[in-house]
Amino acid sequence: MKKVITGNQAVAYGxxxxxxxxxxxxxxxxxxxxxxxxSELIASGRLNTRFLKVESEHSxxxxxxxxxxxxxxxxxxxxxxxxxxxxxxxHWASGARLPIVLVNVNRAIGPPWNIWSDQxxxxxxxxxxxxxxxxxxxQEVLDTILQAYRIAESVKLPVMVVLDAFVLSHTSEAVEIPxxxxxxxxxxxxxPEYLIDLLEPKSxxxxxxxxxxxxxxxxxxxxxxxxxxxxxxxxxxxxxxFGRGYGAIERHGKEEAEILLITSGTVTSTSRMVxxxxxxxxxSVAGIKIKRFRPFPxxxxxxxxxxxxxxxxxxxxxxxxxGGIFAQELRASLYSxxxxxxIFGFISGLGGRDITPELIExxxxxxxxxxxxxxxxxxxxxxx
Amino acid sequence: MGNQITIKGASEMPMISISLGxxxxxxxxxxxxxxxxYEDKTPPCSAACPAGNDIVSFIRKITEGDFEGACNLIKExxxxxxxxxxxxxxxxxxxxxxxxxxxxxxxHALERFVADFASRQNKMIEGNTRRVKEKxxxxxxxxxxxxCAYHLAxxxxxxxxxxxxxxxxxxxxxxxxxxxxxxxxLDREISNIESFGVEIQTGIPFGENLKLExxxxxxxxxxxxxxxxxxxxxITGERGKSVLSGLxxxxxxxxxxxxxxxxxxxxxxxxxxxxxxxRSVIRLGKEATLLYRRSKEEMPAFEEEITEALEEGVKIxxxxxPIHIHxxxxxxxxxxLRMELGEKDESGRRxxxxxxxxxxxxxxxxxxxxxxxEIEISFLPKGIEKREGIVLTxxxxxxGIQGIFAGGDLTSNQxxxxxxxxxxxxxxxxxxxxxxxxxxxxxxxxxxxxxxxSLSIFRHLHPEERPMNPHVxxxxxxxxxxxxxxxxxxxxxxxxxxxxxxFGEVTSTLTESIAIEEAERCFSCGTCNQCENCYVxxxxxxxxxxxxxxxxxxxxxxxxxxxxxxxxxxxxxxSLKEEAR
Lengths: 384, 581
Description:
The complex is a heterodimer. By secondary structure, chain A is an alpha/beta fold. Chain A contains 13 helices and 15 strands. Chain A folds into two domains: 2-242, Thiamin diphosphate (ThDP)-binding fold, Pyr/PP domains (Rossmann fold), CATH 3.40.50; 250-379, Rossmann fold (3-Layer(aba) Sandwich). In chain A, α1 packs across α2 (32-43). The mean pLDDT of chain A is 96. Chain B is 28% helix and 18% strand. In chain B, strands 5-4-3-6-20 form a five-stranded parallel β-sheet, with helices on one face. In chain B, α12 (303-311) links the parallel β10 and β11 (315-317). The A-B interface holds A 95-97, 156, 193-194, 198, 200-208, 212, 215-216, 218-219, 222 and B 7, 9-10, 13-20, 22-24, 26, 541.
């Protein structure tokens, strides 16, 4: 059934269809309408899920850590400062190998106070051991939630599903909503490997001395390394059942191109249009959308960029002192490779400023005109 | 400890840091510095009940729908639930901790409900007629005498009660109008006491037909003849025709005598008897004006009684003192003085003093004097001490004469039904100790409710069961996180017009569903009601259950003594003590 719904409603549908057992969340703009929708459904008795009210995001995640250790499927949603407040517990969830799914609606972190979209909240959690998946549209949001649980529960790692504030969260689009009967065989119930059981008491998350700690971290990395294969299988199965799939990255535009425009989130949609226009003008350009940021899809990207001379990366985030985080990750992942295109790192759209077609065109134009970037950080639309 | 496992590397390790065996070997209880334990404490209601009712326990039985069980629990302490539920001034409710939160539990209404409901089921506590011990005589069949008789019978004594009137009940029968206490209720509860083997001989006035010498066969005697003489006003004209005493008037109505009254009746006094008289006068279709020499604040009658009297049309004139009753034909002119309040007297109330030359007259056809009751002492044997209008006894009710005990209104100025019941109960215990050669003081100490003075006969009969710390639970010791405000349920009252037509009951018994709702409001102060909050909160899963049944046991092998059970217990039923080092 197709419905015109916002990105946040798409999240709620994804959660309902995933038969989540426990939700715990604390309100924060622009996430709030997700848990509002869900809590109303629960209060009216239409959704058989436990909703735990808490006094902070830290507690929300802590509550889910407890619930997930009890062996049930868990969900939360947050944004910006809320995600930052969860930081400690994010490490705990991945360290304890709990397949929790969290939706983060990308929002800038203050000060200055700002409620609009940029990726600095989710990207500053990149080292917490969570899988991160970025979405381009509302359909992808719903589909990604369903996929996220299956990936998380296979590799026993938590997943953060990310969407842009307002551009997706509060904007309506037509979304195909699968039925429960269709989703159930795709997403079977969660079977935990370990769970709290009074009849078989165990100590969880006990101390690991220096003798063993390294090995536990090695196991998390091992699990991360399984993700590309697991996620591909899940995506293939999804495509088979629902006719839609996303991959870790997606290439669009010309098959062979000198310049590749690298984007994530909703900027990709604008880029698709700009690239079509530029190709029509005879410019050799193609686009790559990065959906999966963690684990970083180094191999998938390397396969796609062979033959390209230059990569233009648009980062809606800033790691002050270095530059855009996607650009930085790309540089690191390509350093050991034979073919290393020049990487043009553009920063744009922070704090919700529109990344317009003109700005994207300007980035491509700059990349064409320069054999290599003049600076590590190229500011798009900066008012000097 | 389990077998130690050697791990070569990551491939042999579990995904997370987790104990592979179970943790039963790790007795974390050894870390404990403080020990939680279940310990029931005294609820303020029971501590305040002169009759010593186990209120929290009987209310809990109501919530379980076990009304008969609830009734039996009351009868462990008090044979008169139907009477107390109606006429007691319920000091339990003024001490109820729920009063500090929203409104106190309607304890009296629940007691009445239990008594009436259980009686509809037509089952009684099984009487024990086996007589193995000494014979005891009880003089007076009021609440003190019958309470004493009841408990002595339960202790297997052969008990005979001597009553001067033609039927048993004392003040309950002759002094409390039936709109407050139906005679059927009294008959039912007295016959229940008889079913325990208590013999009641009526029409035998002590001192006249019955002398102390006639009671030689009895090894102990309990005198509870009450206070039946209306106190005289010591004013001119009070012995005149159609000046009645309050108690005589009430007795007359009870006996069905046609009491002739004129249209206007003045009632003198401010206690419960005065109110009972005034409301009875109204029910006979006459005007009732109550004259009280102090102000409303000092009035000893119960607040609710005063309110109902005013609703029914009783007029009350405060700060008025009659000094002379003039009589001319049928008409009486009551000469009064206006009063004002002076210094506090020994009762703590401000003493009324005459305003000079404030004389005025009230015209009435009848005057009924109900300004307090006195005890009758003429028949009392020599050797029994009297002072300030009461018979002096030890704390246990013993008098100067060995084997003779006294109680009830005869020995106290706290003249309520509940106090009389408590007094009879204490005498029963004292008589038992006296005859068995036991230390009465010690026996009383063992079964005090809280700091006393009320006693628990249940604990005397079953010293091992339901132990209770004498500490009385305060509101601050409860955890209000687990309660939300709820309306207090009340008995419904008949409309004023309806009720003044006769002597039928003013209030009606709660219905079953309302009684359960009201019972569920009870905090159950200091008394575990198996809410299982401790079980839910214990982070060490150390609150034990036997299958599905909550066992009130802590698993000290694993309890770390965090105290969460103690702080989350809504009702203060868990205690903490420091572990011995």
